[in-house]
User: What shape does this take?
Amino acid sequence: MKQFKVDGQTMAYQDVGQGPVVLLGHSYLWDSAMWQPQVEALSQHYRCIVPDLWSHGESEAAPTSMSNLKDYAHHILALMDSLEIEEFSIVGLSVGGMWAQS
Assistant: This one.
C-alpha cells in the first residue's frame, strides 16, 4: 500500500499496473482488497488506483474538514493530481459509486 497526505490525514491506496487509469471505489465497511480479483485481471492492461476510504483498511480517520461525499471526491481528485493523472475511468460499488458522481 502507498500513502498520500491530504488535509493532515493519511490515505492508503494501491497503484498497480500500467496503461489507461481505472480508479476503483470500494463499498462501505470493505477496503481496497475488495477489488483484488478485478485488479489482478485489469492491471495486465490498465493502471489501477484503489484507495481505502477514510477509516477503512489502512487509511486514517477522515480529516476534520470533511463533511460529505463531495469533500471525499475532492480528496480523491487531490490524490489523482499528486499522481499527475489527468484522465481516468471510475468503477464504484455502493459508496464507492456515490462519491464518484461528485
